[in-house]
Amino acid sequence: MKIGILQTGLVPAELAAETGEYPAFFARLLDGYGFEFESWSVVNGDFPEGPEAADGWLITGSRHGAYEDHAWIPPLEQLIRDIYAQGRPLIGVCFGHQIIAQALGGRVEKHPGGWVVGPTTYRFKDGQQKVINAWHQDQVTELPQGAEVVASSDFCDYAALLYPGHAYTVQPHPEFNDDFTRALIETRGPGVVPQERLDAAGKALGTPLDQRAVADQFAHFFKQKALA
Questions:
Q1: SS3 content of the chain, % helix, strand, coil (to 5)
Q2: CA distances from 37 to 4, 11, 49, 51 (A)
Q3: Which among 7, 81, 103, 172 has the fewest CB atoms less than 10 Å away?
Q4: Helix count (H) and strand count (E) of the chain?
């Protein structure tokens, strides 16, 4: 099964040489599930010809806001709607979570509670809790039609959304390990994220993460278009 990765942001230049770009993060997260990957840097205007270019799709995170005026956002929203209409499985993470909601009629805004950074506990509707690294200020504030809330946190009501038979999206970053999150705290956080949030996130690093559990969810959705 071929997964098309739509890259909507760039890894900070000082980190990319070691980590690779965001499509590599997801190839590592989903390693072992039998997928092949191809990526398009839509943030740089590189788009696939259409939904038929892959069997399933994944949209990455980004430092950009879904509501910002960038030339690549309207065609990305149209591609999302086309993928959705064809019923090809679609997964979104952080910005991907937000842009899918916006493209389908929802709303994305800066949250008045500010930034969420580092290991964060999310409550899933099946009763399970998962700890996943987060890095965001924007979040979905109004749901599009057909979206079901499947996870929330103390700071994010709509932390994971299921569009039955079409899409599954999450606000946090299961592809971020502690090393990368620490690097973001040190390089991207100062002067942007309040220092007390950075300090708290740094102290929380080392909390066991549920990256594999979310990877299992993603893989199952790609193959079955349903949550496990």
A1: 35, 25, 40
A2: 6, 19, 16, 14
A3: 81
A4: 7, 11
Q: 94: left (phi > 0), else alpha (psi -120 to 50), else beta?
A: left
- CA distance linking residue 39 with residue 26, whole number of Å: 10
Hey, what domains does the chain have and what are their CATH numbers? Answer: 2-224 (3.40.50.880)
Task: Render pLDDT for 45-62 as a digit per residue (tens, 0 to 9).
Answer: 999 999 999 999 999 999
Cα 68 to chain centroid, rounded: 17
Are 66 and 98 in contact by the 8 Å Cβ rule? The answer is: yes
Q: Is the per-residue pLDDT at 228 higher than 80?
A: no
CA distance 161 to 147: 6
* Distance between CA atoms of residues 161 and 152, nearest Å: 9
Active site residues: 94, 173, 175
- pTM surpassing 0.85? yes
Q: Are strands 160-163 and 167-170 parallel, antiparallel or unpaired?
A: antiparallel
At 56, the amino acid letter reads G
| Look-up of token digits 């900070």 | 12
Alpha-carbon span 80 to 86, nearest angstrom:
10
pLDDT value for 113: 87
For residue 32 the two structure tokens come to 């072992």
Q: Phi/psi zone of residue 80: left (φ > 0), alpha (ψ -120 to 50 degrees), beta?
A: alpha
**CA distances to 107, 173, 203 from 118, in Å:** 24, 9, 9
